[in-house]
Amino acid sequence: MSMQHVIKKAVIPAAGIGTRMLPATKAQPKEMLVIVDKPVIQYVVEEAVLSGITDILIIISDGKEVLREHFSKDQLLEDLLRRKGKMAELEEIIKLTTLCNIQFEYQHEQKGLGDAILCAEKFVGNDPFAVLLGDTIIESPQPLTGLLARDYEKTQSPVVALQQVGLSIAHRYGVFVGDKISDRFYKATQLVEKPPKDNIPSNMVFSGRYVFTPDIFRHLRNTAPGVNDEIQLTDAMRSLMTERDLYGHLFDGVRHDVGNKLDFIKTNVLLGLKNEEMKNQLKAWLGSL
Question: Could you tell me the pTM of the whole model?
Answer without folding.
Answer: 0.92
